[in-house]
Design brief:
Shape of chain A: globular
Structural class of chain A: mainly beta
Low-confidence stretches of chain B: none
Strand content of chain B: over 45%
Distance between the termini of chain B: 31 Å
Oligomer: heterodimer
Distance between the termini of chain A: 41 Å
Helix content of chain A: under 10%
Strand content of chain A: over 45%
Radius of gyration of chain A: 14 Å
Mean pLDDT of chain A: 93
Order of helices and strands of chain A: EEEEEEEEEEE
Number of helices of chain A: 0
Largest interface: A-B, 24 and 30 residues
Structural class of chain B: mainly beta
Helix content of chain B: under 10%
Largest sheet of chain B: 7 strands, mixed
Mean pLDDT of chain B: 91
Number of strands of chain A: 11
Chain lengths: 114, 119
């Protein structure tokens, strides 16, 4: 079945450094790729998304890149701050029947050290 | 603050109890979702409602019964749950666009969940 692999599972960076999280998907028909940030005790919060007709998208310190040929996409956070510490999930839409169903990666716990 | 409101935030129930989880959104979204999330795991899709009709049931046991009374509300009725059903239950919504029988993919926005514990 469809699968999304996410790496690394944990990431620790110093404040001000950049953080990169990578995901690979298996369904070549996937065309929508959101990223979610989940803080302790909260639900996942959509932070950025990208569609298959775009190669890169940026929103302030956050950017996402998509390589459809290689079937991978990445989240880049620049100038990290302690409040960026959270669990990050990537996801990919399933191509079949365009139902709005998402397949999530296993998550990356990001720790930003002051 | 999230625009998807879930109640209660915490729920403890015995295996013979009947309880309901509630979800409400006032963003005019026409697709609503129930997810289950275990600790340190990603959300797992349970049900999708599109225009108040059940469109996806991910082979969820019948002890979980969803209901969508109107476009703003989503309920999850619980009965005879098992200890392994203890988890965070998340509701999400998205703008639904019915296009030739399919949902145009729109961003999903999550509530903060109900933390369910089964004794």
């Amino acid at each position: 079945g469809e699968n999304v692999e996410q790496h690394p599972s944990t990431l620790s960076v110093q404040e001000g450094d950049s953080a990169v999280i990578k995901c690979t998907y298996s369904d070549s028909a996937s065309n929508y790729f959101p990223w979610y940030k989940q803080e302790l005790g909260k639900g996942p919060q959509l932070i950025i998304d990208i569609r298959s007709n775009v190669g890169e998208k940026k929103d302030q310190r956050i950017a996402v890149t998509l390589n459809k040929t290689a079937k991978h996409f990445s989240l880049h956070i620049t100038e990290t701050q302690p409040e960026d510490s959270a669990v990050y999930f990537c996801a990919a839409s399933t191509g079949s029947s365009n139902t709005g169903k998402l397949i999530f990666g296993q998550g990356t716990t990001l720790q930003v050290k002051p | 603050d999230t625009e998807v409101t879930q109640t209660p935030k915490h729920l403890v129930m015995g295996m013979t109890n009947k309880k309901s989880l509630k979800c409400e959104q006032h963003m005019g979204h026409r697709a609503m979702y129930w997810y289950k999330q275990k600790a340190k795991k990603p959300p797992e899709l349970m049900f999708v409602y599109s225009y108040e009709k059940l469109s996806i049931n991910e082979s969820v046991p019948s002890r979980f019964s969803p209901e969508c009374p109107n476009s703003s509300l989503l309920n999850l009725h619980l009965h005879a749950l098992q200890p392994e059903d203890s988890a965070l239950y998340l509701c999400a919504s998205s703008p639904g666009l019915l296009l030739t029988g399919a949902l145009q993919i729109k961003p999903q926005h999550f509530g903060d969940g109900t933390r369910l514990s089964i004794l």
